[in-house]
TrEMBL record:
Protein name: Pectinesterase inhibitor domain-containing protein
Phylogenetic placement of the source organism: Eukaryota, Viridiplantae, Streptophyta, Embryophyta, Tracheophyta
Keyword field contains Endoplasmic reticulum: no
One GO molecular-function entry: enzyme inhibitor activity
InterPro entries for this protein: Invertase/methylesterase_inhib, Pectinesterase_inhib_dom
Ranges where the Pectinesterase inhibitor domain occurs: 30-164
Keywords assigned: Signal
SMART domains named among the record's database cross-references: PMEI (SM00856)
Keyword Signal included in the entry's annotation: yes
Signal peptide limits: 1-29
Amino acid sequence: MAEFKFNYLFLATAAVVLIAASNSPFAAARSYIGVNQFCRTSDYRRICTKMVKNATTWQEASLNAVTATLELAKRIQAVAPLMKPVLDEKLMKTCQDQIDSQVEDIETSFNALKRNDTASIHTRLGAALSNESCQDTVKESGVEFPLAKAFGYLSRHVDNSLAVVLQI
């Protein structure tokens, strides 16, 4: 049997080729396959693409994204009262206030989008994105937060909506 000799030169060459290929314009183009054109600046491109559906205009993509975000926020708002057995009264109030505030911010953004009031859209979506008082308060109390995944998903939706509407 022939002696196996490891070729370090081959390994180094292969590593250089792989690194160069991953930084090529072709690699960047592959990362956008199947991604809606209005979601390329998003951190969560696949979710964003589902949110904007098959939008071909900025206005349509923005409306679809904010609508999807608002629908999710309202679903979370509807199930939030189910946390009462897990959270004490103060934590429950904090969480209910947060989701109510987020729904209001997203609704205001939606209405501002219809009026082409870009400053209000950015301000209110930014406020909805930065409002994490519930998660912070629950985390500090040491209680396991039952809607952590839902709130995280809502954050990604708001982030995607903001990425789409900022393309004005």
